[in-house]
Structures are given as C-alpha cells and as structure tokens.
Amino acid sequence: MEHNLEQFVVEIQELLRLDDRDALQETLDFMRVQDIAWVLMELGGEDLPTVFNRLPPGRKADVFGYLDPDYQMRLLDTTPRADARFLLSEMDTDDLTALLQSLGEEQLREYLRLLPFRAIRRALKQLNYPENSVGRVMSSDVVAVEPDWSMKRALAFIRRNADEHSNNVIFVVDAERRLLAAVPIRHFLRGRAEDPVASLLEESPPVSVSVLDDPIEAARRIQHYDLETLPVVGEDRVLLGVVTVDDVVDLLEAESTEDFHKMGSVGNLNLSLQSASPFLLYRKRVGWLLVLVAFNAMGGYVISRYEEAIEALVALVFFLPLIIASGGNAGAQSSTLMVRAIATGEVTARDWLKLWGKEIGVSVSLGVTMGMAVSLIGLWRGGFELALLVAIAMTLIVAAASVVGMLLPIILTRFKLDPATASVPLVTSLADIFGILIYFALAVAIFNITITGT
Amino acid sequence: MEHNLEQFVVEIQELLRLDDRDALQETLDFMRVQDIAWVLMELGGEDLPTVFNRLPPGRKADVFGYLDPDYQMRLLDTTPRADARFLLSEMDTDDLTALLQSLGEEQLREYLRLLPFRAIRRALKQLNYPENSVGRVMSSDVVAVEPDWSMKRALAFIRRNADEHSNNVIFVVDAERRLLAAVPIRHFLRGRAEDPVASLLEESPPVSVSVLDDPIEAARRIQHYDLETLPVVGEDRVLLGVVTVDDVVDLLEAESTEDFHKMGSVGNLNLSLQSASPFLLYRKRVGWLLVLVAFNAMGGYVISRYEEAIEALVALVFFLPLIIASGGNAGAQSSTLMVRAIATGEVTARDWLKLWGKEIGVSVSLGVTMGMAVSLIGLWRGGFELALLVAIAMTLIVAAASVVGMLLPIILTRFKLDPATASVPLVTSLADIFGILIYFALAVAIFNITITGT
Questions:
Q1: Staple B405 to which of A3, A94, B331, B448, CB 3.0 to 4.6 Å?
Q2: Cβ contact B12:B30 at 8 Å
Q3: Would you give the distance in Å from CA A440 to the centre of its chain?
Q4: For chain B, what is the mean pLDDT?
C-alpha cells in the first residue's frame, strides 16, 4: 500500500511541475481522503497548500481531519478566514482538541474566534482534562438512550442522532446519565418494537475507563476485552464520551515506539523522526550518551588496575573486545526479551521466579557454547593457557550478563520505574565493566601474574 | 487492570488450596470471560482444568474462545468427548482455524471427528489458504445483502442473520457475490423503508484486502483508513470474509514484538516468553551470538596489529572501552530511530536524503560534545597529547557510528531485507571494529609510534 502511495507522491509532484491542472484534478478525484492526507504530508512545503486548495470543498474538511496537527496549522495559516472557519467547525471534537492543544496562546485565541460556540465549549471542556488523560483523546460524540424507552423509540432516536461522527455502539444511561450498558446497534434490531431497552441490558456492568486514566489504560482494556468502543465515565459513572479502537491502534503504536527508542537509549521524542528538529534529536540522544560515558570510563579504570597484567602479556588485550562484547550481546538479548514481555503484559513481576530458573539454564548453555567457540581461537592465537582463560571467562561473562539483562528490567519494575530504562546500551555497558573484571581476575590467576597495585 | 487480574490469580489459588468451592464459584461469577481466560492461562498446570470445570456450561464456551491454542489443547485433552464437541462447535471459525493449525496430524483427525460438518468445511477451507495469509486469520461470518433489495428487506435479513459472531458492518454484493460496498449497520436505519440498498452505495469501491495478502497488510490498511472491518476478497473481488480491528491490534503487537526482538538480535520466537522452552530460547539466541563473535574477533585482530603501540603506551588501552562503547551507543541510537520509523511507515526509502543531511548535523554535534567530555578525562589521566587523541577519536567515532547506524537499515531495505536486522548488537560490533581502527591509527600518528608490522 505504501508503495502505491509513494507513486502518487511522485505523480503529483510531476503534475505540479507540468502545471497540468486537469490531470491533477483527475488524480485527486480518484484518491481516498486518507491517501490524500498522507500524500499531502509527504509533499509538505509549498505543495501542501497548492494541492489542498485544488480539492473540492466537500473533501477539504475530510482530508483536513486526517492531517497531523502541525500540517493542519500550516494550512490554516495560508487559508482565508471563512474557509478556516469551515474546516475547523467540521472537525471531530477529539481532532480539534489535539489541534488546539498544540497551539501557542495567541494562535489559540485567534482560532477560538473562528469556531462556532458549541465547538468551542466542547473543545475547552476536553482541554480542561489533564494532559495525558483519557479526557484529552476521547470523542464526546455519543448516542445514549434510556432503559425504559421502547425499542421503537430508541431506534427512532438513534436514526435522528447517529451521524458520521458516531459509532456502532449505543449507550444506555439512567436519568442522571450514569452508564448502564453499551449495546451494539445491531442488538436493537433484534428485539420487538414494544420491548423496553432494559431488555438488552446484561447482568454485569459494561467495561469502562475513567476520564482521568492514562490513555494507554484505555488501549489495554480495549485490547484485553476485544471491544470496539470503550465508554469513558467521570465521577459516579456518568457517561462523558467514548474511546474507539482506531484511536487505540495509534496509541499502542506510539507506546511501542517510545519503548523501542528507550531500548536504544533515545529519550522520548513525542514527534516523528521527520518532524523532529536536529536540535531536538541532539537533546534526546546526548543525555544517555554522556551517562554511559561514566559507565564506560569505569571499564577503563578497571583496565588501568591491571596494567601490569597487560604489560606481562599483551596478547590479553586481543581477546578483550571479543569477550566483553559477547557479554554485552547476551545481556542485550535477555533484556530485550524481558522488556518486551513486560510491555505487552505477558510477563508480570510475579512471574520472575519461573523465568529466572529458565534463564539460568539458557544462559549457562549459551555461555558454554560461546566459551567453546572462542577457546578454539584462543588455542590458535596463544596456546593452551590462553584458550583455557578465554573459554572460562567467556562462559562466566555470557551467563552473568544474560542473568543481569533479565533481572534489571524486573528490578526496575519493582521500583515502579520503566523497565525499558534497561536499554541495550546500558546493559552492554554494565556487562563491559564486570566482563573486564572477570577477564583480568581470571588472567592473573591462570598466568600467575603479580599485581602490585598502584 | 493487570494489577487487579493478578490479585484474582492469588485469590483463586488460595480458594483452591482451601477447597472453598462456594467462594470460588462466587468469584468466578463476578468475573468477565476475558479475565477468566487470562487468569486460567496464568494458573496453568492442574489448576487450569479444575477451575475451568467449575464454570457454568454457558460461560465455558465463551472463556474457551479467549484461550491461546496451547491452553485450549490442554483442556480438550482432559475434557469428556461430548463437552469437547460442544466447545469446538461454539468457536468462531478464525479461532477454530488457529487451534486446528497448531495440532499434529493424529490430533487433527480426532478433533475433526468431533466437529459438526459445517464447521469442518469452513475450517478446512481456511486451512487451505497459505500460512501467513489473510485467509488464515479472517472470519467468514459476514452478512451480505444485495443492492436491489429494499431497506426493509435488508433490515429484516440483518435481523435474522446478524449474531454474536458478526460485526457492525453489512456488505453489499452483486448476484455473483462480488463486493460492492461495506456499510455500517446504522446507515441502514437512516434510509426510508422502500429505498433500495443501492442508495447507500458510495462512488469509490470499498477498501479491501486479498485473501492471499500478508495479514500485516490488512492491519496496515485498517490502521491507515481508520476502518473497523476490512472485507477480504478473492479472485474477481468475490467477498470471502472479514478482518476486524481487534484482530489487527494483536497482529500489530506481534509485529512490533518481532521487530523489538530483532533489534536485540533475538530470532523470531513466534511464542510467548513464558511458553517458549529453554531449548527454543537457546536456539533463537545462539545464532546471532556466534555470528557476532566473528565481528568481535575482527576487532581483536585489529588490536593485535597495533601491539607495538600498546607496548609503547599501555595507557592507550584504558580509553579503548570508553571510545568504542560510545561509538556503539551512538550507532545504536540512530539505527533504533531509523528501524522504528521504517516499521511504522513514517520513513520510506525515498526520504533517506532528507534524513541523511539532518543525521550528519546531529552526529557531528554529538561527536563534538562527547569528544569534549572525554578530553577532560584524557587530560586528567594522561596529559595534553592523550587528551587530544581521545577528543579527536571520540568525535570521529561517534559521528561515523551514528551515520552507519542510520544508513544500514536503509541499505537493508533497499535490498528487500528486514531493516531490523541492523540490530543494536550488530551496529555496536561494527562500530567496535572501525572504532579500534580509528583510535589506534590516530594514536600512532599523534604519538609518532613506529609500527613495523608482524
């Protein structure tokens, strides 16, 4: 699919260059609104408003809703007032909220002036919820009926009130708008016209989420309970809005991206790689690099304590990168497995004992395999004693690093810290330090090297 | 949420220990089927059938559908034939297919004997599609109407045919069952009773996916077009089934997990960390560890070429871990950013030139910062010349490793290879080799060390 969309980008750039308006019009007519939005964001720059303005008015609003907030802002800046008013008033409340919260104060004031009163009220209400709460991402376009209504009345109400913005679930609320049930529209078709809506209610209350919860909690519930829509409630279980599964797909993806970046020791970007400025990228990377310098300097310090060993047998240094890197790699593997299993909820802190036993077995087997592999190189390069040294050191280091890589995410979770802080570079750096220690301590013992200490 | 579920596990284990059947019954009555399934899989072992058998017959089938195939198999093995027949016949076709495809031949024959003919036919049809195709994961429970029917007739048909297994979208097909439209049920409520279904059709054909496509393609389309359901078509656009967004959430999560593991240089597990045997884990890890040994041995070889430099100035070794590790860390960061941006479709191969310019700027800034930081340590430990060496080496290595970390995933993509193969350990190992080269080459130049070659 993305391949086709890229072709559209190339084609449209070509048509713009040729200034072939008819062909451009034809191409755009043929495309779906989501595709047009994707292509517009790829084009960027001056082509963004040029192409957008060629769209028929009806499609403009649809395409606009699918753009990321920074692209929406760029378009609004180049659009006449009347058109901007139209675009803004057609937006879903959750998209509008996302746009408004990315504005500076002055721009916010200006845009609010353009909006119809009802839209302002709804958007301001959502902006009142704390950042990173369900309230900010929910949609308040819900259709709710009452339990004592007849099916006929409920269906007539749904017919009048369900529009493009609403979804396939109808909520049942009491007179105080407290949530009683979430019922797919198709169930309303099943009952007889005179049956009360109450006959559709199930025994257990519907799964819901609090308006103040973290959006990721909403995503996890939708995933766990296989829901299409998750009602959002406030105090006293009063229905306030809804989170739909398509929002959730994007939320979970953003969460995975954050974890992914953390594992590579990159700070939380909150922006796409394309939109992020070089300075932001620098800031998000330099912190961890400098922290890790401290760890790596410790490795250097440990080496300096064994200066005499190196002077006695310089061949020791040849195997240093191999042995410490292998420890780091094994540690990276087990922390990666663990961090991801915790993130998907597959492994909880309770499971660590079960996994610990398994990890020990796997780690030692890996260590022995690696030790044997590398002892051959040792034998070839330095004789029996060196082969013995590298084999034992490799076994110990790989096994120990694996176990550390597995334990660190669990320990972080126990202390309510993000397990993904146990990034691959961090685990690798830790493995380096004790790898160097183990290697030289063994070397001193095997080769009977005297260390006087400095 | 998961926190609460863990409490359920503890509570149920306690009730089983006390053999308090009434309290257990009460707890189970209170729980949702998805939660019971989760808890059963956590309990595992003998408690799995014990607790499952306490469930009222009506809930058994529901809970069963939410279990992973290996747990379903374990239950079927301990369940009387008649009950097993009931459980199997109540399953959704896609879940049943997932179960059947994880069975060995003998078990498959036995289970097929238990199934009603209609279910066998549907499941075998799905198993006929290639592995890792949409056909294997789709649901064939679809409701389809024809364009010349009246709304009234269509609604009556929906009322009769839409059940628990179906979804909120009704498909419109022609007499040859070719897909014409996908219409949310609520749109059927809007029209007048005598209007034809054709009045609901839109100009452009609905987004669909081919039954032979990769399931990830279906997931990406659902995400890109914000769909709830994606129709699956065969040759000639004949409607065969549907993929729903809740399947997609799990698919995308599995895809992210695979990428995540690759970045930590772990092979594709295809199983949860909990279910994977120690031997499988060993196999999925040892391959990359051994491949990386080859790279790391090259690093050792490079060092051995500079034996004389080390003998001339042993202090050179102290800074070795620091400098090569920092290069590895910077490379890890940029490959992580790149691999994820490619995976989410945010960055395509077309964009590399744009990103390349940005990455050069960021890399050099990071290199200079790191060089300055480490030159202070150099000054303190070894005087001006050493400080100069480590500063220049650090700058070059960090900048070079960042650029390599960014380019490698793009190059892999160009050659139609998985960009996530540019794992953190691989990029780190590559950075190690040329880090050592740069460092010693600079040392030889700055300290005027004569290398005779061996």
A1: B331
A2: no
A3: 42
A4: 85
Report the CATH number that the domain containing residue A198 is assigned in CATH.
Answer: 3.10.580.10
Indicate whether A148 and A205 sit together in one domain. yes
DSSP state of B176: T
DSSP A164: T
DSSP reduced 3-state for B409:
helix
Burial status of residue B25 (CB atoms within 10 A of its CB: 0-12, 13-18, 19 or more) = middle
Q: Which residues of chain A are within 8 Å of residue B204 when distances are taken between CB atoms? A: 32
Contact at CB, B310 and A310, closer than 8 angstroms: yes
Residue type, B30: F
B242 against B291, higher pLDDT: B242
B386 belongs to a structural domain? yes
Neighbour order of strands in the sheet with A229-233? A209-210, A229-233, A239-244
Q: Is A371 exposed, middle or buried (0-12, 13-18, 19+ CB in 10 A)?
A: buried
Residue A427 CA to residue A431 CA, distance in Å, equals: 6
Taking residues B226-236, report their average pLDDT.
91
- Look at A260 and B225 and tell me if their CB atoms are within 8 Å: no
Nearest beta carbon to residue A293 from set B217, B370, B425: B370
Q: Which conformational region is residue B417 in: left (phi greater than 0), alpha (psi within -120 to 50 degrees), or beta?
A: beta
Domain end, chosen from B96, B129, B162, is at: B129
Query: In this structure, what token pair is assigned to residue B28?
Result: 């189970």
Could you identify the residue written with the tokens 């559908």? Answer: B65
Q: For residue B361, what are its two tokens? A: 């700027």
- Check B249 against A249: CB less than 8 A apart: yes
Where helices occur in B272-351 by DSSP H, the ranges are 278-305, 307-312, 316-343
| Partners of residue A285 in chain B, C-beta under 8 Å | 330, 333, 362, 366
The answer on A284 and A191 residing in a single domain is: no
Of residues A274 and A445, the one with the higher pLDDT is: A445
Span between the terminal Cα atoms of chain A, in Å: 65
What's the pLDDT score for residue B453? 56
- B259 in a structural domain: no
Instruction: Clarify whether residues B37 and B112 are in a common domain.
Output: yes
Across residues B83-88, what is the average pLDDT?
86
What whole-number distance in Å separates Cα of residue A275 and Cα of residue B56? 55
**DSSP secondary structure, A322-350, as one string:** HHHHHHHHHHHHHHHHHHHHHHTTSS-GG
Instruction: Judge: B264–A332 Cβ closer than 8 Å, yes or no.
Output: yes
What residues in A contact B248, CB-CB < 8 Å? 249
Task: Render pLDDT for B12-53 as a digit per residue (tens, 0 to 9).
Answer: 889 989 988 888 888 888 888 889 998 898 887 888 888 998
Q: For strand A229-233 and strand A209-210, is the pairing parallel, antiparallel, or unpaired?
A: parallel
Q: Do B411 and B294 belong together in one domain?
A: yes
The number of beta carbons lying within 10 Å of the beta carbon of residue B434 is: 19
The amino acid at A240: L
Assess if residue B265 is contained within a domain.
Answer: no
Residue pointed to by tokens 């040729």: A18
The whole-number average pLDDT for the span B371-393 is: 84
Residue A327, CA distances (Å) to A260, A431, A436 in order = 21, 6, 10
Residue A31 has pLDDT above 80, yes or no: yes
Residue with tokens 């709830």: B228
Backbone angles phi, psi at A63, to 5 degrees: -60, -45
Tell me, yes or no, if the pTM score tops 0.90.
no
The pLDDT of B132-137, averaged and rounded, is: 89
Alpha-carbon gap, residue B381 to B375, rounded angstroms? 10
CB A243 within 8 A of CB A222: yes
Whether the pLDDT of residue A453 is over 70: the answer is no
At residue B1, the pLDDT reads 47
Kindly report, residue by residue over B388-433, the tens digit of the pLDDT.
888 999 999 999 999 888 888 888 888 888 888 778 888 888 888 8
Name the residue of chain B whose CA is nearest to A336's CA. B264
* A318 and A437, same domain (yes or no): yes
Instruction: Tell me the average pLDDT across A91-117.
Output: 82
